[in-house]
Write a structure and sequence with these properties.
Distance between the termini: 21 Å
Radius of gyration: 16 Å
Oligomer: single chain
CATH architecture of the largest domain: 2-Layer Sandwich
Structural class: alpha/beta
Order of helices and strands: EHEEEHEHEEE
Strand content: 35-45%
Strand order of the largest sheet: 1-4-3-2
Number of helices: 3
Helix content: 10-25%
Number of strands: 8
CATH class of the largest domain: Alpha Beta
Number of domains: 2
């Protein structure tokens, strides 16, 4: 059986991006090396690594930092509106909105421009149960 383990973001500034995700999630990252960080959640791990690291391991140009334009990182939160208020100093793309499929959602960008969706079911039924 295959088990989903993690998503990794490649960046030119591991410290800055790690601090952003620590702020958004309230988690503390583990840093096994200065060029790598992990934020572990109950659903999987968000890994952050340096573009210099990926170039040396996989070959130059195989992975490009800050080149993603088709990915949402999504975090299930207890209260979208409370998170919007708590994170008011960040760059939001969309204010809290109830989506046609029943989730309340707020969309923001991380320092590298990746989209981050904080959502909660707007109905009593939780799609993650």
């Amino acid at each position: 059986m295959t088990t989903f383990a993690s998503v990794r973001i490649v960046t030119d500034d591991v410290d800055r991006l790690t601090a952003f995700y620590e702020h958004v999630t309230g988690l503390t990252a583990t840093r096994p090396a200065p060029v790598f960080a992990e934020l572990r959640t109950s659903a999987g791990t968000l890994a952050i690594s340096s573009g210099q690291l990926t170039d040396s391991l996989y070959g130059e140009g195989v992975v490009r930092a800050v080149a993603n334009h088709g990915l949402f990182l999504e975090f299930h939160v207890p209260d979208v509106d409370a998170e919007f208020a708590r994170l008011a100093d960040l760059e939001f793309v969309q204010h809290p909105t109830t989506m046609p499929w029943g989730n309340r959602s707020v969309l923001l960008r991380d320092p590298d421009g990746n989209l981050v969706n904080l959502f909660a079911p707007a109905t009593h039924a939780d799609p993650h149960d």
